[in-house]
Amino acid sequence: MNKRPFVHLLKSPLGWYYFDVNKNEIVKITENIYHAIKNNICIDQGTQDDINYLESRGYLSENRVKEIEHTLTAYASYYLEHNVERITLQLTQNCNLRCAYCVYSEFKYDSNRSHTNKRMTFQTAKSCIDFLLEHSRDAELVYVSFYGGEPLLEFALLKKITEYIENSFEGKDVKLSITTNGTLLSDEVVDFLLDKKVTTTVSLDGPREIHNSSRHFASNGEGSYDMIIGNLLRAIHRYPNFKQLLSFNMVIDPQNEYIATNRFYEEHDDLYGIPIRSTFIDDIHSLEKITVSEEYKLAYNYDLFLAYLESFGLLKEQQVSMMATEALNRILDKFEKMRSYNILPDKYAPSGPCIPGQARLFVTVDGDFYPCEKVNEESNALCIGNVICGFNYEQVLRILNIGSLTNELCRNCWAINHCGLCAKHADNKNELSGELKASFCNTTKAQVEDEFLSMIMINEMKDVLKG
Predict the structure, then answer these.
(1) Contact 86, 360 (CB under 8 A)
(2) pLDDT over 90 at 262, yes or no
(3) Which of 15, 268, 372, 458 has the fewest beta carbons under 10 Å from its own?
């Protein structure tokens, strides 16, 4: 061989592979081809012939992106003017809990807002809904999400906004959702959520001892587990259909025991089957960084392996952790959506950034716009406008093209098609930092490689079972 193809080599116990960056495909190869690519030398003519064949089909190209620019740069203004899909309204910055890992804690996070009593006025909310209506003309379906703080502290406002939405979006399908800590799910609230078909995400971190170690009431410091579980069970017993609107968001502290974290879903049969979305504690701007123990990794990977076996019909669903099933489903969903290409274009960008404000526009209590609810509300670098003046397009394009901050790294990165880094990872309080963004690259590539190896293992197991 006399060239360096743009690929990433992968190896499993049963075979040799590479990820072809230009094709966006995982390709199975022989051991000889694997070593020829790795060492840039062919040891026999047969291997060279195999490589020549792959090259004739467009594989093993050396092509790299010439300029980092997001493919939707020229269309961003159109999408924001005509096709905004979701708006998330911060009804309040107040919360009746004080969770140990909360990004709004002034004790552990030095770059975000803290809890306040500020609330969104109905006039601001009305202006937000009018803005969404005006900027979603080409969207067949739009979403309105209620967020906080704890949004159910402003239940009266939520009901008033919902009524305004129903009277405004005639002829357009609107889906409503809420993210809540679950402590205020009274009968009246549940009646309303069910009547309006509001998709409800409840934050719940596992069994009592783990949940209560982090999620305390602000008033007395006591754990919130019993109240949340009581509210959920009462709601489901009254209205079994309410379960169809529910999902859980589990924030995982890997310093806790994995088995204990997972045990909750085995102890509550009435809640079994409710979808789970699990995420690690967000420590990007935390003063205390999170470490994952080897014991936690081993226990998690064992459960994930059981989820693989269940997907092949070798175990019953009840024997498998719902957390592991959810993680496996994320991997499968990603690869089902993985498209093959012919070759990378001259202008391209890492896959992480979406058009800021188009997919999940976040609006603070004051009417300020941010790309989503996960970013720092105190950062001038991430504010993309407000409900009065509209979008700041210069800022939108700067955030959309954060790949340009690490131009050479991104051009030559084999994970460019699968990078999840966005402006949040480059936000250095009030500026976007290429150095900060680059500090997440190794972790991101390791995660992508793990996902590739998982997919390879799944396909190999299918072949074994067929054989």
Answers:
(1) yes
(2) no
(3) 268
